[in-house]
Design brief:
This is Radial spoke head 10 B2. Its main location: other. Keywords: Cell projection, Cilium, Cytoplasm, Cytoskeleton, Flagellum, Repeat. The structure is a single chain. The strands form two sheets. This protein has a 20-stranded antiparallel sheet, sandwiched between helices. The protein is of the alpha+beta class and 468 residues long. β11 and β12 form a beta hairpin. The protein folds into three domains: 119 residues, no CATH class; 152 residues, Histone H3 K4-specific methyltransferase SET7/9 N-terminal domain (Single Sheet), CATH 2.20.110.10; 145 residues, no CATH class. The radius of gyration is 36 Å and the shape is rod-shaped. 37% of the residues are buried.
Length: 468
């Protein structure tokens, strides 16, 4: 390499320094932490820790805190062939230019062994920095290009595509101090495009999906060491957009909208309880509705495993809304109706207690003309009890507690009248009051059919003295 060629090498090095400075400025603008040292341990290890979103508690009064945003860790940066001064050269020359195979020692301790062309490192060769970092691969006019292998003195290795000395294209990185590896695409030295990263040797903790400038962004699948999984959209290393999280150990799952690692927007959160005998489906509690910063907040419906339903407003994981006031306003009338229909067809109870059966509930629905509201009794059963095993959905002997009876009515009111009152607030309260005034108050306790009629007069007066 002649003195004239040394100047050309300096220009190359200057361009590389400018590129490195631009990359560092870009990282600072993203508020990421970047280690500019060539031999410093990459902090990929922290990326696999403290990032798993905790399961949402079923208890409505327990607060869920937003997890801290983890800094985006840096990985080894490629060394730059900076301005160098040749100390010695051993090899072939043509017209005073280094040509063919040769070996160079630079001031400061860096060395190069490989092919030269017209005084430049050109072709296959090995460049070793004084601190132990090594590049083995292709050079084009003093610049690492095409394909090569970087080895750091801690044992970390990158092997794959190279452009202008940076990892660019498809390549594999393996940490020398932690069981972490990345397999996928790179752009200007950063993970960018499709790629997979493994955080442990057993491959039980990993992410596969889209990357943008070293962070998870786009669609991807994340599996945690606990077995919990998330599949969906990411932004700045956090769940953001639409996705599904399964907490395997806590027997919970959430599918819906996310914002920076928390449930935010519309979604469905399910708590799985246990599987009943002779049923392939487990019991579950389920919330369908609005979330704000990881909490049930806004309008939503909670379906309990016992069949009870609450549909209304929520504030910080707690039931809240004017529909409760509407129910309380008519609670005595609802108790009277429950008492009346639970006694039909039964002899007087010794302790005056009765429990409504589904058969009696159907009589109540027919008397109140619910079946005339474009929905049949069978459809009402499926609407209110569709989560139950098929044999129980239409079981006439199944019992309904008073709280379940009220929950069913609230759910039914919303289903029948929500279109009529969709632009009015409070929405659910309007639906419930309309149901009471149009269906329940005018017609409840006035049996229209022959069923139970022969026993009504002798049973009602006896039962009412205990309940009313």
């Amino acid at each position: 390499m002649t003195n004239g060629k040394k100047k050309d090498g300096k220009k190359k090095g200057a361009r590389k320094d400018d590129k490195k400075e631009a990359v560092e400025k870009s990282e600072e603008s993203l508020d990421t932490t970047t280690d500019s040292g060539l031999t410093t341990l990459p902090d990929l290890w922290s990326e696999s820790l403290s990032e798993e979103i905790p399961a949402i508690p079923e208890a409505p009064d327990k607060e869920v805190e937003e997890p801290p945003v983890q800094p985006v860790p840096a990985i080894h940066e490629e060394p730059v062939l900076a301005q160098v001064i040749i100390k010695s050269y051993e090899g072939e020359k043509v017209d005073e230019f280094y040509e063919g195979e040769g070996f160079i020692c630079f001031e400061g301790g860096n060395t190069y062994k490989g092919l030269f062309s017209e005084g430049c490192m050109n072709g296959e060769g090995t460049y070793t920095w004084a601190d132990g970092v090594k590049y083995e691969g292709t050079f084009v006019k003093n610049v690492p290009m095409h394909n090569g292998r970087y080895t750091w003195n801690d044992g970390s290795v990158y092997e794959g595509s190279i452009q202008d000395g940076l990892r660019h294209g498809y390549g594999v990185f393996r940490s020398g101090t932690h069981p972490i590896s990345y397999i996928g695409y790179w752009c200007n030295g950063k993970r960018h495009g499709k790629g997979e990263i493994y955080y442990d040797q057993e491959h039980t903790s990993w992410y596969s999906g889209d990357w943008v400038n070293n962070v998870r962004e786009g669609w991807g699948f994340r599996r945690y060491r606990s077995g919990n999984t998330y599949f969906g959209h990411w932004k700045k290393n956090l769940q953001h957009g639409y996705g599904k999280m399964i907490w395997l150990t806590d027997k919970q799952e959430y599918e819906g909208e996310w914002q920076y690692g928390l449930q935010h927007g519309s979604g469905i959160h399910t708590w799985f309880l246990k599987k009943m005998d002779l049923s392939q489906y487990p019991l579950r509690n389920e919330y369908v509705g609005d979330f704000v910063k990881g909490e049930r907040h806004g309008h939503g419906t909670f379906l309990y495993a016992d069949g009870a339903v609450y549909s209304g407003e929520w504030v910080h994981n707690k039931k809240h809304g004017k529909v409760e006031l509407a129910v309380l306003r008519h609670i005595s009338k609802l108790r009277k109706a429950y008492c009346f229909y639970s006694t039909l067809g039964y002899a007087p109870s010794s302790d005056g207690t009765y429990t409504l059966t589904m058969l009696q509930f159907w009589r109540f629905l027919k008397d109140c003309k619910f079946h005339l509201s474009s929905v049949t009794l069978a459809e009402i059963d499926r609407l209110l009890r569709g989560h139950k095993p098929l044999k129980q959905i239409h079981d006439p002997s199944d019992l309904l507690l008073f709280r379940t009876f009220v929950s069913y009515l609230v759910h039914l009111a919303f289903h029948i009248y929500h279109e009529e009152y969709k632009d009015k607030v409070p929405h659910l309260q309007k639906c419930f009051l309309e149901m009471m005034s149009r269906n329940v108050l005018p017609s409840a306790c006035h049996v229209q059919g022959k069923q139970f009629y022969c026993r009504i007069h002798q049973l009602v007066s006896h039962a009412l003295q205990f309940y009313c």
